[in-house]
Specification:
alpha/beta, nine-stranded mixed sheet, 20 helices, 15 strands
């Protein structure tokens, strides 16, 4: 793949002077897609033309699929070899060739490919580019589907690098995807080995299709007779085009890859799936989708995908979290699982009864969170920050019901020989297996913690203190009750499990009273709790849960180090003076 990628990249040399480096991708990528389709049709063109003469519409699609095994066709008279036989007519013939594809091949218009052809012809570069691509054999026998997906992503990375763009906006590292897929499949490992098993998987932020491709690849490694139906939605035109092209090569139903803003317009609003997975953008605002999201929330009410709550407009990743929770196949149909990569903010951002806290509350009180895995830093191409894989499940095994497993995999990484952007670390196959074993074992340990869902909940109480007049007397209302001093008002978070209780053991008021008596009253005897202002909150303090106390070094050891440093400094000063 590396040699192939370098060769395709070298074709960009023909574009120097005509295009800027940040424009190369818009030319090389559609030509790569076209050449892949061209090679796939080798030996099938005559059959396609014969069928097109007899059938049309859906019947033609079905006949082509039955006779050739391909989910697309081209009724034109050309291929790359024949196009090059007529240099003078190349521009018109190439446009005619592209126009001859079946309607489901809408990828070229996403690149403005006809305008690309016109400009290359005008600058006398079209024949050079077509002839270069004609030298590459991209038939699936020569370049398997997995390698083709790698080629697309290699090219995207190179073009993003050349134009100072963030490559990570378009795709997710394969090692992170493989871990997520293995965790998703872990609970169905036996069922997925059955002959002829059929499952569906969906990615609402499909990008170039990397997650879907790896999921299919991992399943077929285990069970070559399995069938995974791939579904995806993508907002970026070029990423959508590449994803759809990749799915065509895999023999998938290309109508299952759709273009659009998932938050504003769910193209699969009437479907749920066995598995869902996503790597949404971090810290990206959702202003463009705001009106549609709020309108849908008002219309659909408690049953809607955004009913639990709305995150700050500055970061929309938690909207994808609730979206995925609603796309899992319902329990009565067998249940579903979802995996999503998020940064740290969805774990704890937002006070009690804020949008993020209410989303966590909904997920945890409905027992949808199965596991959360902390990944190493420097794992992704466009960020070095901490990231986490959330695994959701709406039909947990009995031993996992009412519980959440937290796995600390931050130390499970190997250094890459050559970094790519911010990505300098990766998870090896052995480390991936170790993480999955921790998940399967479902035991408390150094790197795995099992907690009840109510252990993440708390009450935020408002603690008031009395207002004093100029004489130092407590100011009271008409009923003789002390008036609160707003300047002295404070809040405290009382865990549901304070005092060793589970939520409901002692009741809210009794637990809060016990907390107040032990933690507040001894320090401020005149304080009281305004129970009308009590709020419910949820957070997942991942770092605090895995924190281990490291005692400071003994003073004697620190003194010895200081004396040694002072001695070295004095020796250096003596050498200078000498």
């Amino acid at each position: 793949m590396s040699n192939l990628g370098s060769f395709v990249w070298s074709i960009a040399d023909q574009l120097r002077g005509v295009y800027k480096p940040n424009q190369y991708g818009g030319i090389i990528l559609p030509f790569t897609i076209l050449r892949r389709l061209d090679c796939m049709m080798d030996g099938q063109r005559e059959t396609m033309r014969e069928l097109a003469a007899k059938f049309e519409g859906g019947v033609l699609d079905a006949q082509v699929k039955r006779k050739t095994g391909l989910a697309f066709y081209n009724t034109g008279q050309y291929d790359f070899a024949r196009l090059l036989q007529d240099p003078e007519g190349l521009r018109a013939n190439l446009i005619d060739y592209v126009a001859g594809f079946s309607a489901n091949i809408d990828v070229f218009e996403r690149f403005g490919f006809e305008q690309v052809i016109d400009k290359l012809a005008e600058k006398n570069r079209l024949y050079l580019v077509v002839s270069k691509f004609a030298e590459i054999d991209l038939h699936p026998d020569a370049v398997p589907n997995a390698a083709m997906g790698d080629l697309y992503e290699h090219l995207i990375y190179k073009f993003a690098e050349a134009s100072n763009e963030e490559a990570g906006e378009h795709y997710t590292p394969r090692d992170a995807i493989r871990l997520m897929v293995d965790l998703l499949f872990a609970e169905e490992s036996d069922a997925l080995m059955e002959p002829g098993v059929v499952r569906s998987i969906y990615d609402p932020t499909a990008g170039t299709g990397g997650m879907l491709s790896v999921a299919e690849e991992r399943l077929y490694e285990r069970n070559p007779n399995a069938r995974l139906r791939l579904y995806g939605q993508e907002i970026n035109d070029q990423s959508y085009a590449i994803c759809k092209s990749d799915m065509i090569g895999k023999g998938q139903d290309v109508d299952n890859i759709r273009l659009g803003d998932t938050l504003a317009d769910d193209k699969f609003y009437d479907r749920t799936f066995d598995f869902c997975m996503s790597n949404p953008p971090y810290g990206v605002d959702w202003k463009a989708s705001e009106a549609a999201v709020k309108a849908e929330r008002a219309k659909t009410g408690a049953a809607g995908r955004f009913a639990p709550g709305l995150p700050p407009i500055s970061d929309g990743q938690m909207l994808f979290l609730t979206h995925l929770a609603h796309k899992m196949r319902p329990r009565h149909e067998g249940g579903g699982r979802a995996g999503i990569v998020l940064n740290g903010s969805p774990l704890f951002t937002g006070a009690a009864e804020s949008g993020p806290s209410e989303i966590r509350r909904w997920l945890l009180e409905n027992d949808l969170v199965d596991a959360i895995v902390a990944l190493p830093t420097d794992m992704f191409f466009n960020t070095g920050i901490a990231t986490y894989i959330w695994i959701l499940d709406n039909q947990k095994k009995p031993e996992r019901e009412g519980k959440v497993q937290l796995i600390d995999a931050t130390s499970m990484w190997v250094k890459m020989r050559k970094g790519m952007g911010s990505k300098r670390r990766e998870i090896s196959a052995e480390q991936r297996d170790e993480i999955v074993k921790l998940y399967d074992a479902f035991e408390d340990g150094e790197k795995s913690k099992i907690l009840r869902t109510d252990e993440f909940g708390y009450w935020t109480i408002t603690v008031e203190r009395p207002l004093l007049d100029e004489n130092g007397e407590v100011v009271r209302d008409r009923k003789g009750k002390p008036k609160p001093d707003a300047k002295k008002r404070d809040t405290e978070n009382v865990p549901f499990t304070y005092g060793g209780n589970t939520r409901g053991d002692a009741g809210r008021d009794a637990t809060i009273a016990a907390y107040f008596a032990a933690e507040i009253a001894p320090h401020v005897p005149d304080a009281w709790v305004d129970t009308a202002k009590t709020k419910v909150g949820y957070e997942i303090p991942f770092t605090r849960i895995f924190y281990t106390y490291t005692p400071p070094r003994p003073l004697e050891e620190i003194d010895r180090d200081l004396e040694q440093q002072i001695a070295e400094i004095l020796e250096l000063l003596r050498e200078v003076e000498a």
